[in-house]
Amino acid sequence: MTASYEPNNIFAKILRGEMPCHKVFEDEVALAFMDIMPRAEGHVLVIPKTPARGLLDMPPEALGPYMLRVQKIAAAVNRAMAADGLTIQQFNETAGGQVVFHLHFHILPRHDGVGLRPPGVMGDKAALEANAARIRAAL
Ligand code: AMP
Questions:
Q1: Does the active-site annotation cover 43?
Q2: Is the pTM of this model over 0.90?
Q3: CATH code (residue 68)
């Protein structure tokens, strides 16, 4: 059985405006912002406003509208970063690689011959904001 939703996880705090983020998009369904430890230039996270821990406990009726936002933001990231491709990742529970327990999709713009950076390295603040601005402009 999946554990319950923890309302003080870091993404819940970002949703409530208690923590800052480099915002890319927000509407009544989803929020998108730059991953602060980007594994590629332009690495974005898309989270639903619905308090779901992972994919399996997302209410089915909320999933469709959320996935439309994931697709819309992925297209903007693709354009803004002039990507050759996209890697889209979503992890569930510790065993599945999840670290923050609020559902999120990673959107990673990829360029031919360029590998992903190692995890856990903080991004440069100015570069994060510049990439956020590029992606906002492509939406
Ligand atoms: P995971 O749960 O494995 O998908 O990993 C959580 C992701 O959230 C990692 O890529 C982190 O770099 C990212 N992250 C953690 N804290 C923040 C934050 N405050 N703002 C933006 N991204 C974050």
A1: no
A2: yes
A3: 3.30.428.10
